[in-house]
Amino acid sequence: MDDHQLLRYSRHILLDQIGIEGQEKIQAAHALIIGAGGLGSPAALYLASAGVGIITLVDHDTVDLTNLQRQIVHNTASIGQAKVSSAKQTLEAINPEINIVALQEKASDERLYELVQSASIVLDCCDNFSTRHAVNRACVTAGVPLISGAAIRFDGQISVFDTRDVASPCYACLFPPDQAFEEVMCSTMGVFAPLVGIIGSMQAAEALKVIMGIGQALTGRLLLLDAQNMEWTPIRINRNPLCPVCAQRQLTR
What we know:
The relative contact order is 0.15. The protein has an eight-stranded mixed beta sheet, sandwiched between helices. Helix 4 packs parallel to helix 5 and helix 6 crosses helix 7 (about 130-140). The chain has helices at about 5-10, 10-15, 20-25, 40-50, 85-95, 110-115, 130-140, 170-175, 185-190, 195-210, and strands at about 30-35, 55-60, 100-105, 120-125, 145-150, 155-160, 220-225, 230-235. By secondary structure, it is α/β, with parallel strands linked by helices. It is built from ten helices and eight strands. Helix 7 links the parallel strand 4 and strand 5 (about 145-150). The longest helix has 20 residues, at about 195-210.
C-alpha cells in the first residue's frame, strides 16, 4: 500500500485483528453481490469503503421512486437508471481506487456459476427463493463462501454458508429446494427501511471477516431479527447429510 492508502484505511490498520496484512487481504478480494437493492446497497457501500479490490454487482432492475425509501446507494437523480449503473457511480465516488463491475442482467444458473468461480466471496442480496437457491448451488459447486441475508416487513435474517468447511451446511440444508415457501415481496408486504440497512451492513461485516479469516463467522448459525422489538434470536443450523445440493460436495479443506 502507498501512503495514500495507508491513510485511507488507517482506522482498519489500527485494529490488531486487521492490521496491514488484513487490509491487504481485503484489497486483494473480489466480492460478488447479487442484488443492488435494499440489502445490496449498504453491503456494497461498506465493502467499497473498506477497500475490497473488485466488486461485481448483478441486478437486472432499474431504479424506481419507491426504492429510495431504503435503497441508499441510489438517489432521486438515479430514477430510471439501471440499479447497477447507479450503484457503480455512488461506489466510485466513495472509493475511486477499486474496480466496480456493473452487470445489468438476470443471471442464469450457468452464468451464476461462471461469476461465482472468479469471486472470493458472494453476498446474496436478492429477494426471491429461486435466485437464492441458484446462487447457493453455484457457491457449493465452486467452493466459495456465501453470505445470505433477507428482510421483509420488520423481520430480517442472516447467515454464512461456507461449504469449504466439512461441518458447514448450505442454504439448501436450511431451506430444502423441494419444499414450498411463501414468496413475500416488499412491493406487496412492505419493509421497514432501517431493517435492510442492519442486515446488509451485517452481510458486509461477515464478508470482511471471512475474507480476512478473523473472528467467528455466522457459519452454522442463523440470526433472526425482530426489528419492531429489536430482539435477536440465534438458531443453530446442522448440515443435512442427504442435502441434494451439498451432500456430495468436494471439500477444499
